[in-house]
Amino acid sequence: MANQQITIKDKITSLVIGAVAIFLVIGGYSAINFYVSRPELPKVDPVITEEDIKKAKEEIPVDLKKYESYQKVNLYPNGLVTPKDLIRACEDRKRIPVQCDAEITKITRVLVTSGEIQDAYLYIKAGVSRDNAPFGTLTEFDSIWFFVDSSDFGGHLLRSQAIVKRQSDDGVTELLYNLREVPFVGLPYRDDANPRMRNILGERLNTPGEHFVGAFVSTLGLGNILEAKIGYDGGLIEIRK
Hints:
By secondary structure, this protein is of the alpha+beta class. It has helices at 2-37, 50-58, 62-69, 84-90, 97-107, 200-205; strands spanning 71-74, 80-81, 109-113, 119-129, 143-148, 150-157, 164-167, 173-178, 182-185, 196-198, 209-218, 222-233, 237-240.
């Protein structure tokens, strides 16, 4: 009887020791795996000189300086959040033509031009929000759709061929295009796509009279055009209220 009790105690002791050993092994493995696989914290430690800063400031694109000096037409003074109804009606492969046309008409602005415009740029500042996050830069899943008069002179702007493509101080996307050479692409959007080039200044805006212009952020997130401006030199462009 005594031997049987000792045997039971030995078995219980062995089970407890085994369980503790397994726990320690699993815990140790998990700890090692965490430290090995955890993402490395970013290490940012810039090294720059006064000469580097001066050189960078001097290399601001000539086109940007020209745009900033030109007269401006502001297409959306209050910005433009992409309407959900527009996305539903115009979604790729699900387009409802009549409804899509109606939604595009709502965001279209009427410009009146005099002709004789010497030079012109399109400036876009836009962002996208997902899951209630603050507006940030456009991703590979987002694009800017822009047109003048018809889709023959419109499409998704190819960001990789923008004269200026950068993140603004407030964390959204800034783009600048010369309206003599506007690169349009279709869907699915890709930065390495081969664009259709359109001379919107020469073929559209320099024809005196009315012109229809519109833009929106194409996204399944929440898109917002913060600024959409045409900067021009010579002639006159006015927006009809």
